[in-house]
Amino acid sequence: MRAEIDQVTVRGIIEGITLHAENEVVGIVGPNGSGKSTTLRCVYRALKPDAGTVLIGGQSVHRRQDLARELSALTQESQVEFDFTVAEVVEMGRLPHRRDPARDRRVVAEALARVDVAHLAGRSFLSLSGGERQRVLIARAVAQEPEVLVLDEPTNHLDIRHQLDVLALARGLGVTVLTVLHDLNLAASYCDRLYVLDEGRVVAHGTPEEVLVPELVAKVFHVTAHVVRHPTTGVPQLLFDQEVTP
Amino acid sequence: MIGKISALVGVLAVSIVAGVGLGPVSVPFDLTLQLLHAAVTGGTVPADLAGQYHIVWDIRLPRVLLAAVVGAGLSTVGVAIQAMVRNALADPYVLGISSGASVGATAVATMGVLSGLGVYALSTGAFLTGLGATALVYITARTNRGLTPLRLVLTGTALAYGFSAVAMLLVFQAPHGEAARAAMFWLLGSLGGADWRSLPVATVVTVLGIVYLMTRARQLNALAMGDETATTLGVAVTRFRTHLFIVTAGITGVLVAVSGAVGFVGLMLPHLTRMVVGADHRRVLPLAPLAGASFLVWVDVAARMLAAPEELPLGVITAAIGVPCFIFLMRRRAYVFGGR
């Protein structure tokens, strides 16, 4: 399913952002405060843009009653106070769908297993570590069976193995994935295309190969980078010098 | 789950019959059952039992049923409000209803406002100013993004201080202390004025409210996880919170009008229920009203008996029973509402 952001502006934060993704993994990268999360919040309707439109499957998100059946999101929201179990949290992903207990149970069990939290199913969500919580929330987004999956920094708090697992899972779903990532090397490894945001605008987009070049990294992130090839996959990876460019 | 519900229904039924029997003039349990059976089925009662029949049917039963309704309502509203504002300290009165109602009640008791309404003056005055206060909280807390949880709690708390100040001023300005005492007694909660006429409105509003909330259990779960999460799960958060506000304010307003501001039930019973069955509203919502109903029936029994023939305010007893129970359970179980 196609996700399309057209000339979206949130006053003072993002300005005329245009991007799209369709049955591919699209990464959004950029420095802190460049408007990555704000862009995603417009997609999952936590924010109504001042101008521009967000279309999912060709229809504006603000005209869709049943959007939650097609779009799920991992948000940055994290202050939960209620002591739900892990299974209950993941089961919330079934809320938008017509109730079907047998199928709901199966989908929830699958989602728990896919992000490696099945063994935590009966545990209290609040008792988990940051990384475990993050995986549970990803399981919930997966249990929603979306056509479009929006992920805001999915690798936050995760150890390296689970970072790789989660991004591989996102690719393996075969749906449209729109994800904000901080780690440029993970973005290069797992995204089909990247959009680079700086000061609320898209400053570059294309394949990782086209986008992650030393000149752009220096301009946007103010660091000196060298591009090397991953010895087995051939994907471009960045190595950074210690001193910061002005 | 079915087992827990049946057990609590059983407890409530026994509590109601026992509650009807107990009081300054006690009626034995089996005789109470027999008299209630006769009343419900239209049977006959021997002439020498007429006095006890009068106590059971006309005085105690409506009062005990009202206690059950108020307990069920406050407990359920507490569950909904804690999820609605995502705050462990929230109770049905956090939106300013009880302090607003206290203005009306003290005005009636000390200044004779609405005296044309006779015995209904106090509850009418309380109901009107209670809902007026809630409307004011709603209007003040509202932003163009709807009602946000923290703003609601802050606005409700701040305005509650204002309303309480007005009520206190009325008490201190009152020419004689007796009126102030009446107002204070009412504020701490009492079912002393209960009769059959006070039941229908309170029961209908409470039952409809509980049914509505039970049908929204999964949405309440989503809302408890956060507004953004609830939005991505397809909950229209702004509209849902407005509906919750109206339903909880409506139930609370009606209950405060018939029983005063019974404290602690709406704060504690939701937590007690969650300690036993967890946070999932699909389990909390059927059990919290049953637990709250039984609890308040026994609280009212204690209010009648402990200092008989004087009556104690319900709020004093809910606190005296509730605080130690609550602290005991909280320390015994690894209960983590509010994070570890």
Give the arrangement of secondary structure elements.
The complex is a heterodimer of chains A (246) and B (340).
Chain A: E1 2-10, E2 14-22, E3 25-29, H1 36-43, E4 51-56, E5 59-60, E6 71-74, H2 86-91, H3 101-114, H4 130-143, E7 148-152, H5 160-172, E8 176-180, H6 184-190, E9 193-198, E10 201-206, H7 208-211, H8 214-221, E11 223-229, E12 236-244
Helix pairs in contact in A: 3-4
Chain B: H1 2-21, H2 29-41, H3 50-84, H4 97-111, H5 121-141, H6 149-173, H7 177-187, H8 199-215, H9 217-224, H10 227-232, H11 237-259, H12 265-277, H13 281-305, H14 314-332
Write the element-wise H/E pattern of chain A from the N-terminal end onward. Answer: EEEHEEEHHHEHEHEEHHEE
pLDDT < 50 stretches of chain B: none
Topology-level CATH name of the largest domain in chain A? Rossmann fold
| Largest interface, C-beta within 8 A | A-B, 32 and 29 residues
Counting structural domains of chain B, the number is 1
**What strand order characterises the main sheet of chain A?**
6-7-8-3-9-10
Question: Which superfamily, in CATH terms, is the homologous superfamily of the largest domain in chain A?
Answer: P-loop containing nucleotide triphosphate hydrolases
CA(first)-CA(last) distance of chain A: 41 Å
Report the structural category of chain B: mainly alpha
- Largest sheet data of chain A: 6 strands, mixed
Helix % of chain B is over 70%
How many helices of chain A? The count is 8
- How would you state the average pLDDT of chain A, rounded? 93
CA gyration radius of chain A, whole angstroms: 18 Å
Provide the CATH superfamily of chain B. ABC transporter involved in vitamin B12 uptake, BtuC
Q: Poorly predicted ranges of chain A (pLDDT <50, ≥5 residues)?
A: none
| Oligomeric form | heterodimer
Order of helices and strands of chain B, N to C? Answer: HHHHHHHHHHHHHH
Kindly state the percentage of residues in helix of chain A.
25-40%
